[in-house]
């Protein structure tokens, strides 16, 4: 899902590609033992999860921002203009089709 909006001459592009991949070791009984066994090639109960990035990628000398929708929502909530609207329009909902 991509959503474009503007705020103060800057363009915000919301994209689901802005994620970090982290390893979740919560199902592992002993992390040090699991790490040792993992190095030896034994499969472990480590799950890789995608977590939204909190920062934005900038282009065009800081005029274009690529940002995850969750981070953009937090940014909209912090903005003082227009009840959290970036360009006077509400962003599309999760299941809503985006047209350009």
In brief:
The chain is built from 2 helices and 6 strands, in the order βββαβββα. With 100 residues, it is of the alpha+beta class.
Describe this structure in words.
The protein has about 100 residues and is an alpha+beta fold. About 20% of the residues lie in helices and about 30% in strands. It has helices at about 30-40, 70-80, and strands spanning about 5, 10-15, 20-25, 45-50, 55-60, 65. The strands form 2 sheets. A 4-stranded mixed sheet has the order 1-2-6-5. Strands 3-4 form a two-stranded antiparallel ribbon. Strand 1 (about 5) and strand 2 form a beta hairpin. Mean pLDDT is about 80; it is low at about 95-100.
* DSSP helix fraction: 10-25%
- Return residue spans where pLDDT drops below 50 for at least 5 consecutive residues: 95-100
Outline the biggest β-sheet: 4 strands, mixed
Average the pLDDT over all residues and give the rounded result. Answer: 78
Radius of gyration: 19 Å
Residue fraction in strands: 25-35%
Number of helices: 2
Shape: elongated
Question: Which structural class best describes the helix and strand composition?
Answer: alpha+beta
Gap between N and C termini: 11 Å
Overall strand count: 6
Order of helices and strands: EEEHEEEH
């Amino acid at each position: 899902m991509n959503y474009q909006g503007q705020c103060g001459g800057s363009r915000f592009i919301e994209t689901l590609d802005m994620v970090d991949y982290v390893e979740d070791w919560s199902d592992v009984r002993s992390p040090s033992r699991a790490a040792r066994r993992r190095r030896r090639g034994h499969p472990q109960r480590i799950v890789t999860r995608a977590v939204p990035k909190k920062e934005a990628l900038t282009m065009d000398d800081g005029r274009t921002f690529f940002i995850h929708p969750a981070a953009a929502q937090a940014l909209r909530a912090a903005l003082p203009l227009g009840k959290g609207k970036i360009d006077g329009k509400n962003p599309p909902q999760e299941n809503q089709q985006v047209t350009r």
